[in-house]
Fold:
Amino acid sequence: MADILKGNEVVTALNKELSEKVVSLKKEGIFPRLAIVRIGDKDSDISYEKGAIKRCETIGVSVLPVKLEEDITQIELEDNIKKLNQDKSVHGILIFRPLPKHLDENKICDMLLMDKDVDGVTKGSLAGVFTDSNDGFPPCTAEACVELLKYYGVNVAGKNVVIVGRSLVVGKPLSMMLLKQNATVTICHSKTKDLPKVCSKADILIVAVGSANMVNEQYVSAGQVVIDVGINMDQEGNLCGDVSYPNVSKIVKAITPVPGGVGSVTTSILAGHTINAAMRQGGM
Ligand code: NAP
Structure:
């Protein structure tokens, strides 16, 4: 059976390091604070928000929840973002997406101050990832994958990494982050030919597709490390990943579980970005 790459071990290590940073920041009179903007009452947003508040508070980062009505207008939302941009007590801003259809999501994302863009949604932050500069922040989920590999001592340099999924939240930024660490990266998507064959040749396989249990034993081979980013509901209504864990874990060397894998690391990364944002804004 495969080694299980549990997120909670990574979280414990990260939280310790981040809590220490917060203690030194508070001594300098800087109190890191994250605003979470939620429009409407989607169950998945509410559940992520609860988890993020709990995690941030454990670390010492305070959270300002900004709850807005589903029928908010574009102008009203822009006013809220402007206020948060100007509020010096707020160091990081997270906006739940997708926004309701009547709102211009690209415009809202690009209104965020890059220095407060702790989930890498602005073009400036993404340019930072693609140009290896320290502008903005990378998307938290992509960084959670990198952090998880690092914690478990998986050296990606020279390795053949296959990423399935090319979104701006996971696949594309993650490919650049691993390339920076000298991995040889292949990005796959819905038009990739013979996906099982491409995946089975990877040393490290990262799946971010959004399709319950899609990656089965035909996609993997012995010795691989498999990172499952997917968060889905199976037919019985249980949380599951993009990888069929019972089948794949019999073959590969190591695998992340869902739940309890990448997803659990993401909120610690978010808290970490808020702390770094507070440091930058405090001139440290
Ligand atoms: P997305 O924007 O919908 O992108 C999905 C990607 O998967 C696309 O590039 C798509 O290809 C590709 N794809 C879809 N079906 C495919 C197939 N049959 N074969 C190969 N590629 C296929 O999704 P996302 O936002 O990146 O999220 C992906 C998954 O990660 C979801 O389950 C989501 O819930 C989860 N997620 C988890 C976290 C976390 O914290 N753990 C955070 C964000 C997302 P095309 O580009 O060709 O359409």
